[in-house]
Specification:
The chain has about 290 residues and is mainly α. The protein is built from eleven helices and no strands. The chain has a single domain, classed as MetI-like fold (Orthogonal Bundle), CATH 1.10.3720.10.
C-alpha cells in the first residue's frame, strides 16, 4: 500500500509540490525552536539572524545581500521572522485541527451509531454553530477571553469540529449496515469495540482529507486574528501580525507585507495540494482516474 501511494504521488505533480512545501515548512518550524539548551545560539541564527534581535540602524532596509527579505520597523531580519512564524502557524494549525478532529470524530461516531436522541442533540448543536460565521465566532471568543496562542486554538476549534462530526456521522450511517458490522453485532461485540475496531478505521479516509485541507484554513484564520491584533502577541513573530505591521508602509516598504503574504499563500497552497492528492489516493472511485 505504501509503495502504491508513493507511485501515485510521483505521478501527481501537484501532490509532489505540496509535499515539498510542507517538508520545507516543517523543517523551518523545527529548526526555529532549537534553543540554547543544545547550541550556543539558535540553529537558525547560525545561518540567518536572530528573529528577536533589534537593530534600529538597519530598520526598513530593502532586500539585499545581508537581509534577503529586508528588515522591519525595528531592524529585525524579515526572513528569520518569517521562518520562526512558520512554527507559530503550524503549531496553531495542528493543535486546532487535532482538537476539532478528535471532538468531531467522537461526536460523529456517537450520533451516527446510536442515532435517536443523541443524534438529534448533536446535530442540532452543529446546526446552531453553522449558523454563525466561523471567523465571527472566533473573534467573539478571543475578544472575550483575550489574545494568546491557547485562546486562538480554542477559538478556531469552537466551530471546526462540526465538519468532522458531519463527515464521520455520514460514514458511520453507511458502514454500520455493512455485512462485517452486522456480523460483529450478531456475535455479541460491545458497541465500543464495534465503533473502534470495525467502523472507525473504515471511516477515516475522508476525515484525513478534511484535516489536511483544514490545516490551510486554520492557518488563514489564525493569520486573520493576528492581523486584527487578537492572535499571538509580540514579540513572537506571526505572519498575520507582520502583515498588519506592514500595511501602513505598503508604498515605501512593500516587502513588509509581501513576504508574509507569500508565506501564507505558499503554505496554504501546499496543504491544499496534498489534500487533493490524498483524496485521489484514498477515494477508490478516483484511484484509477489519473
Amino acid at each position: 500500500m505504501l509503495f502504491k501511494t508513493w507511485k501515485v504521488l510521483l505521478r501527481h505533480r501537484a501532490g509532489v509540490v505540496g509535499m515539498l512545501v510542507i517538508i520545507i515548512m516543517v523543517n523551518a518550524a523545527i529548526f526555529s525552536v532549537i534553543d540554547q539548551t543544545f547550541f550556543d545560539q539558535r540553529l537558525i541564527t547560525k545561518i540567518l539572524y536572530n528573529p528577536f534581535s533589534l537593530s534600529l540602524q538597519d530598520k526598513l532596509k530593502p532586500p539585499n545581500a545581508n537581509h534577503l527579505l529586508g528588515t522591519d520597523l525595528l531592524g529585525r531580519d524579515l526572513l528569520a521572522r518569517i521562518i520562526y512564524g512558520a512554527r507559530v502557524a503550524l503549531e496553531i494549525g495542528l493543535l486546532a485541527v487535532g482538537i476539532s478532529g478528535f471532538v468531531g470524530t467522537i461526536l460523529g461516531l456517537i450520533a451516527g451509531y446510536y442515532g435517536g436522541v443523541a443524534d438529534s442533540i448533536i446535530m442540532r448543536i452543529a446546526d446552531v454553530l453553522l449558523a454563525f460565521p466561523a471567523i465571527l465566532l472566533a473573534l467573539a471568543f478571543v475578544t472575550f477571553a483575550g489574545p494568546g496562542l491557547t485562546n486562538v486554538v480554542i477559538a478556531l476549534s469552537l466551530r471546526s469540529w462540526v465538519s468532522y462530526a458531519r463527515i464521520i456521522r455520514g460514514q458511520v450511517l453507511k458502514i454500520k449496515i455493512e455485512e462485517y458490522a452486522l456480523a460483529a453485532i450478531a456475535i455479541g461485540c460491545s458497541n465500543l469495540r464495534i465503533m473502534v475496531r470495525y467502523i472507525l478505521p473504515n471511516a477515516l479516509s475522508p476525515l484525513i482529507v478534511q484535516a489536511t485541507m483544514g490545516l490551510g484554513g486554520m492557518i488563514i484564520s489564525a493569520a486573520g486574528l493576528s492581523f486584527l491584533g487578537l492572535g499571538v502577541m509580540p514579540p513572537t513573530p506571526s505572519w498575520g501580525m507582520m502583515l498588519n505591521e506592514g500595511r501602513l508602509y505598503i508604498r515605501t516598504a512593500w516587502w513588509l507585507s509581501v513576504s508574509p503574504g507569500i508565506a501564507i499563500f505558499i503554505t496554504v497552497m501546499g496543504f491544499n495540494l496534498v489534500g487533493d492528492f490524498l483524496r485521489d489516493v484514498l477515494d477508490p472511485r478516483l484511484r484509477n482516474v489519473r
